[in-house]
Design goal:
The complex is a heterodimer of chains A (about 550) and B (about 120). Chain A has ten helices and 16 strands. In chain A, the strands form four sheets. In chain A, strands 7, 10, 11, 13, 14, 15 and 16 form a seven-stranded mixed sheet that branches. Chain A has a five-stranded parallel sheet with strand order 3-4-5-6-8. Chain A has a two-stranded antiparallel sheet with strand order 1-2. The longest helix of chain A has 16 residues. By secondary structure, chain B is an alpha+beta fold. Chain B has one domain: Potassium Channel Kv1.1, Chain A (2-Layer Sandwich), CATH 3.30.710. Chain B contains four helices and three strands; from the N terminus they run ββααβαα. A three-stranded mixed sheet of chain B has the order 2-1-3. In chain B, helix 3 crosses helix 4. Classes of the chains: A alpha/beta (about 550), B alpha+beta (about 120). Chains A and B meet through helix 4 and helix 6 of A and helix 3 and helix 4 of B. Chain B: Belongs to the SKP1 family. Chain B: It is found in: Nucleus. Chain B: Keywords: Nucleus.
Chain lengths: ~550, ~120
Amino acid sequence: MNDEPTLPTLPSPRWPRESPFGVGQKRSRAAHTDTHASSSNAPSSSDAVFSSDDDPALDNYVHGRRKKRYVGTWYDQQPASSDSADSAIGDETRPGRMPLSRPRRRQFKRQLDSGVWMALDEAPTDTDENDSLDLAPAMPRLALPVPKPPRSMLSPEEETALAVVRRCVDEGREMVDLSELGLKTLSNSVVESLSNLVPIPTVMKDVAFEHKDPSIKLFLSRNPLKQFPGAIANIEHLTVLTLRATRLTELPGSIASLKNLQSLNVASNSLRYLPGELLELMKKGSALNDLQFHPNPFFQPRDHSPSGHGRAEYEMTFDVDADPQPLGNSWNGLTTSLLSRTPVQFFNSARSSLSDFSLPPLDEHLTADSRKIEHEDFWDLAVPKTIAASQSHFQASRDGTQRQRPVGATSLHELALRAAARALQPHELEFIKQGEYPIRNPDVVERAVRIHRAGGQKCCVCKRETWNPLTEWLEFREVLRTHVSTSVEDGESRTIETLVRLGNNVDECYVPFVRKGCSWACIPLKAPAPSPEVVESGDMTDSELSSASQSS
Amino acid sequence: MAANRDEPSKYVTLISNDGFEFVLLREATVVSPTIKAMLRDGRQWREATTGRCEFPDISGAVLEKVVEYFQYWYKNRDKLDVPDMDIPVEICLELLVAADYLGLDSKPPLPSHGA
């Protein structure tokens, strides 16, 4: 240090003594802390701060030593810290130096040339915000209430259910038992994680590893559920679903997407009917082979011996046997056989009934007598006068394919709801119902929300999605346990089909299935009126049901 | 328009709350019972005589889509398998309110009427 050329005597500082960085608070790092370190003054950030790194004393740099620090240009230097002239000593009163004043309290104000914004500012006076960008004007829109974020809070019961589901997913267990948890609702978020369930494969020696699809079994019995949790319909590998004693009033059509479902139990609910879509799981080749649906307060036909004439025409309304699946050598499952249907109930978009026939509303309590529904012959089709007068295309729409298709444009209600449902979650759609929204028919929206929650609804005739079905009717079918076996004898294949009717009495044999159409043209096909002698064939059903019928 | 009161114009004008005017076929508007009632002959309503309907609750962007729907409905009245009209998601709720206000599909439209 001694052979280092000394700097000229430093003049007195020309600026007020302030901290160089405006940061007056002491650093907490003890090694660098010096009570007088911030006594130097530099209001501007343009002044360089440098240290004398070339100090040979730094070679044995020890605790307490500090680098020399200088602020500003060299010719008006004074050491930045009081001890920087000889950092080892830290002498405050060096001869020939001005005694340093105690550091003043920091003043909070903006240093105009610093470019650094310090603690306290005046109100921003920047003109940045006034610089208007040349943007297109926003689309004018109604003052709609902002949708509230979903309440992510699950009820304590759902938390329990979620814990069970998580444990099952973690351990790869396929049996998910959520029964008797007191679930009033079941959020989709609880159910959704089940789709990720992958069973842990059993690895054995000398057996090649094989990927196995899970077969998830979900038990939800004895929970006071009011609504079918729509997310269940998305669990592709669900094989067993038990919804026994759960107070459901309606099953959604989306249940038909559970193609791997083998066993479904919906007994002891408040179901008035089963969804017509369920019939897709009850045809030859489908996996479903166990269906428990009694007891339920099902609608019953008033008349038990309707004429069977025109059934084939009616079945052609839907593509029932569109893609027959191969049955293999033997197949066990469920099939149905059509018995009768009710008249069609027509609605307008506001959900008021236009036809004379109407089904009792779902929330109405039904006595055994009011559950009896009239039937309509397959060659009859009552269409309200207003609709019949306006739609001359009821006949015209029968083209070569013998299928009725909607004529004309889809209603704007339907289109708007469809667009809304694509973009919004059910709870977001739900706020439209609230009072401040200027809609006259909140029922329509409520219905759409319900359909949305349950996983969507498709028109049974034209298969388009619909949020506001305009036609509705029931069909009564009997459910048959069916066994088909094929054997080859003498080069000739023989198919033996065994049918056993489910149900203990006549009432239980008539199972109602609901059909919903998206437009007034989506109605059952009308069979041609029978000639008088054909009407006699009304009791065909029993002869068909001989315990084994053979066909080759 | 008011001059030939005996023979009403084939076209009507719909005016949004921000002043956009849409002129379209009278027959295309009969899908809305609300508009049909406004334009009905025999009543001395201003709309019926001038053929101009103002909608103080419907903005131009929404009314444009409504008018597009009227045309779409009119064009496809008797057609099978009509492709769906595209509805922008941003205004679907406003359209729902507008459709509700205009009473679309609350009654079956009678094509013979207004033709």
